[in-house]
Amino acid sequence: MMVPWLKEHFSNTVCRNGCSRCNSQATAIMTSVTSHQLPSCSCPTHSRSLNRTIPHPCARSASGHLSYLNIWLILCLFPRTCVSSPSKPNFLLILADDLGIGDVGCYGNDTIRTPNIDGLAKEGVRLNQHIAAAAVCTPSRAAFLTGRYPIRSGMASSTQQQVLFWNGCSGGLPPNETTFARILQQQGYSTALVGKWHMGVNCKTRRDHCHHPLNHGFDYFYGMPFTLLNECQGTDDPELAKSLQDKYWLYTQMITLAVFTLVIGKLANFFPVKWKIIICLAICGLLHFLSWFSSYGFTKYWNCILMRNHDITEQPMNLNRTAFNILKEAVTFIKRNKHRPFLLFVSLLHVHTPLTTTEKFQGRSRHGLYGDNVEEMDWMVGRLLNVIDKESLKNTTLIYFASDHGGSLEARRRNSQLGGWNGIYKGGKGMGGWEGGIRVPGIFKWSGVLPAGTVIDEPTSLMDIFPTVVHLAGGAVPQDRVIDGRTLLPLLRGSVRHSGHEFMFHYCGVFLHAVRWHQKDSGTVWKAHYATPVFQPEASGACFRRGICPCFGDGVTHHDPPLLFNLSQDPSEANPLSADTEPLFDTVMRRIRKAVEEHHKTLTPVPQQLSPYNNIWKPWLQPCCGTFPFCWCHEENNKADSIV
Ligand SMILES: [Ca+2]
């Protein structure tokens, strides 16, 4: 007789995609194993090498060509497949861009319709304290993929430029970093990234693609190597370093005016200035203009591009088709890989500005273009979930939905808000310490494995996806480096009460702005802020005059003693505690200080991927589908909407 946990183990591991007749066989295999009193071995359902050379045991035995004994022998002759992980599901990971936690129905929004995401939470597990490792795209995504604080990989910035600015810059996710996609690829998974990357392309030459997704464990890539920007649409103010561009433009005008004044003065004999000086000044002005306008003047061509694997398909991209193309590519990938283990990371371009929304969704929500864009995103999520259901992958696919960080409060056009809402939480995108910048939606669904309708308040991190996915795939996390994520499965299944996080370190660039302490014996979550951004205007709750809050310098206020909040009682961080009001103040601060000291000891110097040199446009690194600088091309893809 088989013990219940073994039966569950085998029904999870042996039976998967489309193997409706497999339960009895799983039992038979297990009986064979237990009768020989050998260690349990899980089915190699997700070993690519096995899939290629030996058909799935379920399929073979169904056709009657292979005995159970042979199956068992096959299983245990392949040591890599004899693991004790509970199961090896497919993974569909969906990451929204700049979506606020308050924008989703199941997190309390009742004015934007997100029925598909809400349904995901209803049938799965909703995390109430799901934390991004950074409050802007590039570092948050690097941490998500590697399970490590971005400061460890050099993906955190020490300058005002907190994210990568160009496809043609040399910074990016270092080739020696290991993504979960890389480990799953080694475990036999078919891996794909569809959507946004924003973690660099090249190091030294135009086509070395050292930072490219295909060099980081993805077998397939379709999407933007960069990120959406207003420049991609061309109808709004430029978004990329607007104040810097304004400054360069002002200098150009001043030099031009000076040259004209000197020429007129010379011709009218007002100034005894030499022609040589005037010509030198004119040349300097021209060089200055060319040096900045060659990059910022053509941002749409340099940054707004789409790629399929190593090839550029659209330069510049046609935004009107992009959402459909992304959906079509994701759906096609699922269908193409439904009979083999897959990891699909759908990194949505929604809901980042410029909020390109198809006509069908325009004017539908009560929150203008932003709300329309959120509703369109929810519809896309629904289409992906439908495909999983239709292809009978529901019970064998772990689905995850999150946002890379909080909504952007500063994204506005005149009086209309173009960024997200972070609910009751203070702050937003760009604010590495305040809760609104880093607390995001986090939902898991795995039918039959995770309890439906569960809500978990424990602190969890986007970095937890790394060890969770790796363990479920039967892989092992790298032992030669610090991994900051903690595996989530026991918490999600309800077999443990607490998450693996005692402390979380909240960075803004390379600057530690806040620390969270989950005091497990009391259940209290404390948070201490060492630095907070200076809001402009004061008390506005955001940095409207700067566009995004700075992480250092006169743009932040340092706190000594730190601002301490009891997040369990005061999640909006409205009432800072002091030694007078909180008896545990000194104890908590002492414990947090010690944790910071220990954390600092684990950091090692690494090359700075976002340094000024690594984050400037370099023409020789610019991806180009023609002969540089003549870069434009368009792949015909006009049947996209009919497919989805
Ligand atoms: Ca983002």
From TrEMBL:
Ranges for domain Sulfatase N-terminal: 89-474
Cofactor(s) the protein needs: Ca(2+)
Protein name, entry field: Arylsulfatase D-like isoform X1
GO CC field: endoplasmic reticulum; intracellular organelle lumen
TM stretches of this protein: 248-265, 277-298
Gene Ontology terms for molecular function: arylsulfatase activity; metal ion binding
Taxon lineage: Eukaryota, Metazoa, Chordata, Craniata, Vertebrata
Family named by the database record: Belongs to the sulfatase family.
Superkingdom of source: Eukaryota
Gene3D superfamilies registered for this protein in UniProt: 3.30.1120.10, Alkaline Phosphatase, subunit A, Helix hairpin bin
Record key words, sorted: Calcium, Hydrolase, Membrane, Metal-binding, Transmembrane, Transmembrane helix
Source organism: Lepidothrix coronata (blue-crowned manakin)
